[in-house]
Amino acid sequence: xxxxxxxxxxxxxxxxxxxxxxxxxxxxxxxxxxxxxxxxxxxxxxxxxxxxxxxxxxxxxxxxxxxxxxxxxxxxxxxxxxxxxxxxxxxxxxxxxxxxxxxxxxxxxxxxxxxxxxxxxxxxxxxxxxxxxxxxxxxxxxxxxxxxxxxxxxxxxxxxxxxxxxxxxxxxxxxxxxxxxxxxxxxxxxxxxxxxxxxxxxxxxxxxxxxxxxxxxxxxxxxxxxxxxxxxxxxxxxxxxxxxxxxxxxxxxxxxxxxxxxxxxxxxxxxxxxxxxxxxxxxxxxxxxxxxxxxxxxxxxxxxxxxxxxxxxxxxxxxxxxxxxxxxxxxxxxxxxxxxxxxxxxxxxxxxxxxxxxxxxxxxxxxxxxxxxxxxxxxxxxxxxxxxxxxxxxxxxxxxxxxxxxxxxxxxxxxxxxxxxxxxxx
Length: 426
Ligand SMILES: Cc1cc2nc3c(=O)[nH]c(=O)nc-3n(C[C@H](O)[C@H](O)[C@H](O)COP(=O)(O)OP(=O)(O)OC[C@H]3O[C@@H](n4cnc5c(N)ncnc54)[C@H](O)[C@@H]3O)c2cc1C
What we know:
Blueprint: E1 2-8, H1 14-25, E2 34-38, E3 42-43, H2 49-54, H3 59-62, E4 64-65, H4 66-73, E5 76-79, E6 82-86, E7 91-94, E8 97-98, E9 104-106, E10 109-118, E11 123-124, H5 141-159, E12 166-171, H6 175-194, E13 203-208, H7 220-232, E14 236-238, E15 243-247, E16 250-253, E17 256-259, E18 262-265, E19 269-270, E20 288-289, E21 301-303, E22 308-309, H8 322-340, E23 355-359, E24 365-369, E25 378-381, H9 382-401, H10 403-420
Parallel strand pairs: 1-2, 1-10, 2-5, 10-21, 12-13, 12-18, 13-14, 20-22
Antiparallel strand pairs: 3-4, 6-7, 7-10, 8-9, 11-19, 15-16, 16-17, 23-24, 24-25
Bound molecules: flavin-adenine dinucleotide.
């Protein structure tokens, strides 16, 4: 098997790149030219995983099959996990696929390429915390679904144990921790409406952050507003508190012991250890080191999104955000199309920070918008911030589905909430 361009990882960046390249180059010369490979058979936009975890988003309804997206956007899709890469021979291997009994369904495959784009995303950074395996993570859809099942079980147990409350600790008060806290409050309040008075129970959420304030990467005003909103909803925010160890019953922190029923780890990202085995230069977070043209240390191999360390400003790399993955996918798509059409090379990639938006539940958000014509920084909150936050998700769908289908999908989701409630309780 040989393709002109192979993209590994169909997430926020890789899937947008495959769709854009497929539409422009996929049909040329009557053969398949663009291949996308992912270890999952369906796509869910990662910034919605906290909603899947809380049950406010149904992954069965939200997930889009890669084979459908491939047909629509004129690229090919193959299911598989990247297990080996030879950057000199321009060959890679996808591991065998087994069923739940261990029987091999698909053997290991070798694929040749002219160009390769690695868009593998990232996982959690445990910072070597002992007992990390006791915490839930939100790295992929299956993690979020696993947490959701445990959450429903815990809800059920508390509803039949009068006087018991459900204690959840979330480690890390970046956007993921903050948004998950707010989403869990929503899920609990929706569930409470369905319970008899004698079955209702308290939800105690503790957000634990080592830094002296929440939302470290965002302006202080946003952090202060978000903290106020969370505390009003009943979330206990512990800043300046370092988690020293985790066990099955809770956390040991620099401020003392914290007993919990469920612990979620949302404190920082790190790319997969396997990235170090692919013969490319990597940094201490296992990200592929790329230049401003998104090129890795090997000719014809690029990396985008969370798995790439691309220079930005003040010696810092481009942040690991969906916004960055989206911009890199758009830049690289155009650069590869220009190269194909013999046009001169485009200017180097420059990440533009358009601001940050944080969801604080159903109709609430907070954030800042940067730039605009005046170059000023605008503070937004409430429903407007929430709508803008939701529009980022729609923008991603627009790139991979087109405007019409995105509108249908958004309407279907709205109607689904009207019919079966906002929270998935099964
Ligand atoms: C709960 C949560 C909320 C977030 N909220 C925001 C937000 O509000 N705004 C924001 O900008 N960012 C947010 N982020 C961060 C954002 O999701 C990431 O920065 C973004 O998804 C990175 O895109 P990516 O394409 O690099 O990787 P991903 O979107 O993670 O995609 C990686 C893909 O690679 C596949 N893959 C991985 N390894 C292999 C392999 N070996 N072989 C084959 N396939 C592989 C995975 O299955 C996946 O499909 C959030 C993240 C989380 C977890």
